Amino acid sequence: MNPSTTGHQMPTLFGLDEDAAPPPPRASPAPEPQPAGIRPAAARLVPTSSPDMADPKRRPLLLLVVDCPYCDHQHIHPGGHIGAPRPCPRRSRCVGHPGGSYYFPEVSR
Fold it and tell me: Which of 2, 20, 28, 68 is deepest in the core (most CB within 10 A)?
């Protein structure tokens, strides 16, 4: 309640006067989003433990595991079958970081 309209001051929680209370601390401004660009990422081929039931030869699948330079997580891409790896796009993007594209210059096993 406004004291100017009632003529007297209302008590506040914990007995503090509203006029004497210090202003709340200001939050620091959010950092400016920096352009993501394209960054290199380490990648490796990892075979799965179970065979692919859709493959007539029942070969295990290969997964391309990429260490994302933006979110510090690993992203997994299909890599074909053991014995016949399928080339996958060498450029992808991080879904957790808008505009964050990465590429894997070389793949280790």
Answer: 68
